[in-house]
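Researcher: Structure prediction, please.
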Amino acid sequence: MKKGISAAILLILFFWGFWLHFYQLESWPEEERTICVHIEGCVIHPGVYTLSQSARLADLVEEAGGLSEDACASSLNLAKRLLDGEKIYIYPKAEEGQESEGASPRLPADEESWLEVPGIGPVTAKKIVEYIRLHPSALLDDLIEVSGIGPAKLALIKEYFEQ
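Model: Predicted structure follows.
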């Protein structure tokens, strides 16, 4: 008799748990994470935009109304992932025989030059040179893609090149 009652109680608890699991529990609402990015330069509507965390540069340019006629589109990597708090500057096209005003200088392609930058050691210098070899039109901001370079180290690199 005791076994029958125990079995009945276990069976009731099993079905009650099954019912609770499928009919009364709601999943947690999935919250969309967003980032805030600033875009300036040769775009129709420069400013600060809030985008989904998975946004690319192409999404930001679209939100900003597109590129203006004088934008240098060939130097852009529209597939670049954006970071929260990032500022993007779209440079104008260079006039024939001139560099565009305010354009970033060509990044050095040798390890020795990178070793002179504060905070850059031999391993990171090698990674940067390899990145530049694969991405010859890379700008300073693109170095955030290099393993071992975070926002703080990128700020040091920018400070070094702006001197």
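Model: Strands lie at 34-41, 47-52, 87-90.
Researcher: Thanks, that helps.
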